[in-house]
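Workshop exercise sheet. Pairs work together: one partner reads the sequence aloud, the other fills in the structure field after running the prediction. Swap roles for the next sheet.
Pair: D.N. / O.F.
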Amino acid sequence: MTLAASCGCASHPDSAPVSITFSDGFSSTHPIGKGGAQPFREYLEEHGPGVGLDVEYFAAGQLGKPKDALHLLRAGAVDISPFIPAYLSNDIPLSSVGELPGLVEDPCAGVEALMPMMKPGGSIYEEEMKEQGVVPLWGVMIPNYKVFTTNKPITRPSELEGSLIRTPGGVGDRVVRELGASGVILSNSDLYEAVARGTVDGAIFPEMSVKSYSLQEVLKYVADDANLYTTTVLYAVSADQWQSFTEEQKAVLDKASEVAQEGACRSLLEAQESARAAILDADVEFVHIDESTKQEWNSALTPIRDNWISDLESVGLPASSVLSEFEDRLAKENR
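Structure field:
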C-alpha cells in the first residue's frame, strides 16, 4: 500500500513532481549521515513520488559545507541542508541554547526538547529562524565534548590556565575562555599536525570524532567526566520551498524527519560506544574526575550561561526565557 493510500493523501499524477535538492554536509558513513540523512533520503525516495516529490541527493558537502548552508538555502541553491549553530553564532545565537554546559546529558532527550522550539510557532523559530528564511525539519545533538591534552592529564579546570586549546567555535569559545585557556580555531583536518607539532596543548573534541582524524595517536589524556557541552546539527528546508509544498508533501517530509531524528540519535550513541573503545585501545588515558572535583568544573562553567544570557539580552534577544523554556522541556523529556 502506498503512503498516499494509507494516509488518504492525494497523489499528483497530472502535475510534474517537485524536485528537492538535498545537500548533505555529512558522508554516508558518518553516524549522522548513516543513521539520519540516509533514512531521510530513503523515506523520501519511497514515499515522495506518491505525493509529487522527487529528491536529488548530494552527499559529503558536494554542494557546500554546513557553515555555508544558510546562505545556500536562502539563495535557493539547495532546498534541504544541515547547518551547525555553533558556526553561525552571529546569525542564530539563540539556537545554541542546547549547547550550554551542564544541560544535556542524554542527546536524544536534548534534541526532542529543542526541536519544538525550532519549528514554526516555536520561540526560537519566531525569533531567528523565520528571519533566516529556513524551516528546521529535524536535528541531532553530538554529545560528550571533552578536553583532550598532550603533555599532562587534566583533573581540575584550573590546570588548563594558560594552555592553548583548540576550540570549534560557538559555545566552545566561551568554555575555553572561562577555564582560563586561550582558544585556537583550527579545522579538524589541521588539528592532527597542530597537536603533533605542539602548536596547541590540546583540544575540546567529541569522543566520537577522535578516531576519524587519528587524533588518538597524538592526544594522550582526556578529562573523562567533564562533559563540557554538546553541538547541535539542524537539517532545514528553505522557507520558500516549504511554503510551496502541499499539506500531503509536508506530511511526508515530517514523517521522514521523524525517522531521521530517531535514527541519527541511535547511530550517534552507538558511535560513541565504539569510539570510546577505540580510544582506550590506543592507550589514551581516561582521567577520572570524582564527584567533589566535578563540582569544581560545574562552578567554573556556570558563568557561561549567565554571560550567554546577558550578551544576547543586551542586543534585545530573549535569552533568559528561551533557556528557561528549554530547561523545562528537557526536564519533561528526562522523566
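Discussion prompt: The longest helix spans residues 247-281. What would you look at next?
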